[in-house]
């Protein structure tokens, strides 16, 4: 069911439309690229270029419009369009978010939060199975960036994700920046979260930039917004090193979606991710035993 193409371990870069022509023309040295299929579905020229790029780069497909958290049914027309692109690209990974973004046929430009309870768990598990069947591939589910919780939640996000893995066999895309900013916003320990994830289910890691803002609900307090519009922050690099020690080397993506810089800046962030991972995995220096 899964792609036979090689799954890369080093750090890749999100391929956004402003860089597609440059990447196809210059073939920069990067082990893999990730795309949002929704950016390409209505853009035949970009899709043509993407199919050229895939000859040289393993491609990962990261859906933003497949709403596994919606109360209503999965939009099968959209899923079929994504499937068509997936069949053409033959990606190494296909992923999406633990969130909802559609209601009654309306698409919202946001990834919205879910209450973590048994009813939502059953709904999301059924939708993940539908998506995996519809795409004919395993689906990696990404932990969200959180700003609010629900009083009705009966379990933590971590318990919810672990249970989804258990029920559906889906894999997880652990966005390290989302773990860091959600922990800050919601008041828990990001290291506790990383240490609670099932190692065998981790298929990919994300790193993205966030933007601090004053919390309107609590003047003087700071909230971190998942803008994907900045370099990776130092505490996220530290958390990434910890995650790599726990999960081992995994395909890691630099995500940058707003105020997109030159491709060289993205490559520099990917290089830094490789260096941080290599240092995290290097054996501890041996100390001479006095004797
Ligand atoms: Fe992400």
Give short descriptive properties of this protein.
globular, binds fe (ii) ion, alpha/beta, 291 residues
How would you characterize the overall build of this protein?
- The protein is α/β, with parallel strands linked by helices.
- Helices cover 41% and strands 19% of the residues.
- It has ten helices and twelve strands.
- It has an eight-stranded parallel β-barrel.
- Strand 7 (140-142), helix 6 (157-168) and strand 8 form a beta-alpha-beta unit.
- Helix 5 crosses helix 6.
- The protein is globular, with a radius of gyration of 19 Å.
- The chain starts with 10 loop residues before the first strand and ends in a 10-residue tail after the last helix.
- 40% of the residues are buried.
- The mean pLDDT is 92.
- The site of fe (ii) ion has 5 residues, from strand 9.
- Fe (ii) ion binds at residues 142, 175, 206, 208, 255.
């Amino acid at each position: 069911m899964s792609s036979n193409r090689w799954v890369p371990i080093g750090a890749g870069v999100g391929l956004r439309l402003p860089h597609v022509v440059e990447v196809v023309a210059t073939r920069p040295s990067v082990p893999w690229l990730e795309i949002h299929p929704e950016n390409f579905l209505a853009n035949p020229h970009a899709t043509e270029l993407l199919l050229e790029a895939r000859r040289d780069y393993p491609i990962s497909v990261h859906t933003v419009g497949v709403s596994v958290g919606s109360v209503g049914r999965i939009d099968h027309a959209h899923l079929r369009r994504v499937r068509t692109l997936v069949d053409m690209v033959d990606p190494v990974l296909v992923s999406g978010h633990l969130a909802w973004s559609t209601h009654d046929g309306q698409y919202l430009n946001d990834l919205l939060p879910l209450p973590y309870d048994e009813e939502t768990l059953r709904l999301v598990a059924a939708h993940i199975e539908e998506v995996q069947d519809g795409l004919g591939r395993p689906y990696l589910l990404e932990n969200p960036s959180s700003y609010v919780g629900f009083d009705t939640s009966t379990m933590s996000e971590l318990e919810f994700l672990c249970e989804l893995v258990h029920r559906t066999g889906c894999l997880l895309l652990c966005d390290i920046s989302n773990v860091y900013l959600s922990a800050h916003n919601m008041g828990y320990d990001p290291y506790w979260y990383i240490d609670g994830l099932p190692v065998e289910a981790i298929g990919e890691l994300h790193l993205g930039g966030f933007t601090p803002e004053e919390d309107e609900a609590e003047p003087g307090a700071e909230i971190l917004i998942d803008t994907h519009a900045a370099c990776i922050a130092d505490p996220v690099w530290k958390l990434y090193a910890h995650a790599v020690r726990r999960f081992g080397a995994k395909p890691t993506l630099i995500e940058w979606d707003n105020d997109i810089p030159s491709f060289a800046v993205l490559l520099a962030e990917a290089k830094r991710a490789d260096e941080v991972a290599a240092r995290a995995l290097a054996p501890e220096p041996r100390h001479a035993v006095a004797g």
